[in-house]
Amino acid sequence: MTHSPALSVRPISREEHLAAIAARPSVSALQTPAWGQVKKDWRAESIGWFDHDALVGVGLVLYRQAPKIRRYLAYLPEGPAIDWESAAKAGDLARWIDPLVSHVKSQGAFGLRLGPLVVTRIWENATLKAALADEGVTRLRDVPADETTETGRSIARQLEAAGWRPPPESEGFAAGQPQHVFQLPLHGRSPDDVLRGFNQLWRRNIKKADKAGVSVTHGTAADLPAFHALYAETAERDGFTPRPLGYFEGMWEAMTAEAPERIRLYLAHHEDHLVAATTMLRVGVHAWYSYGASSTSKREVRGSNAVQWQMIKDAIADGCEIYDLRGITDTLDESDPHAGLIRFKLGTGGHAVEYLGEWDLPISRILYGAFDLYLKRRS
């Protein structure tokens, strides 16, 4: 039996990290060096996996210090960008993960959290529609998937066998990155193809916005205060805590400096009123709807549909293969307000995707347990 050569993990430069990302079809926007600059409360480090001298994988590690001691939780949001498929087929995930654990341990980590962008299950549009119409079904996890991946099953088995803790089953949106997302496939499709896949309500709302004279334009850093004012209005209406303006200014500065296409701001105006605004992130062939805001007034002009349609058209023009509408919850219960979010996204004709989720490895069980308790008390 032949064994694959051992891999090593060590810090890499920003330039090496960006070159490795550019050589891939895509990685998560949260695995770019710019994201390390956005998360100012964490210490960021670019790392690489090496097979001898060849760089074969990359990741952004964020280190969060525990209170009063110089020990850290190491976190790779939606990462790392390694060859998960080959690790699944060969059953040798330890070859990739063991040197990562050794590295973060040498940096003072008491725990490690990964969020691999490994797809485990996919539910097609028709399956979701039928599930929403069935009063006996209240959870996505109870709906048989249209596709279940062997890569996802293998990686989950290997992580569990190595002592990693799987993501907890949660109601609503949990802390961290969403395990369930909604995606619209774009590969080989024209705007007309995509529009035909929208449901009747979406097509009608796009026409309504056009007829009402809603115009969608790209914004600049100077437009961020106007976006933020609308976002704060949305937060108050929908009952969530908004991020401060400085967060978006920092994100804009870091991401536009890294790559011009990394972030884009969209503004939908009706007459002189800003009625909707969004941000879109892009790395390679994957585009993400990131933050959205809409006015309480003038909802009848359908600015939110108009701005989404413009983002989708731009993603197609940019050669993107996936337009990602980001998180959905596991609920299919019509009495749950989150079900409305799924219905809105379902209208695009896309499908629901389940990722492997965020897995935790307690390196020091005592410190990990204490930090976990501290975070729960804070929230």
UniProtKB/TrEMBL annotation:
Pfam family, one: FemAB
GO biological process: cell wall organization; peptidoglycan biosynthetic process; regulation of cell shape
An MF annotation (GO) of this entry: aminoacyltransferase activity
Cited SUPFAM superfamilies: Acyl-CoA N-acyltransferases (Nat)
Taxonomy, superkingdom: Bacteria
Alphabetically ordered keywords of this record: Acyltransferase, Cell shape, Cell wall biogenesis/degradation, Peptidoglycan synthesis, Transferase
Entry's family note: Belongs to the FemABX family.
Protein name: Aminoacyltransferase
Source species of the chain: Phytoactinopolyspora alkaliphila
Taxonomy of the source species: Bacteria, Bacillati, Actinomycetota, Actinomycetes, Jiangellales
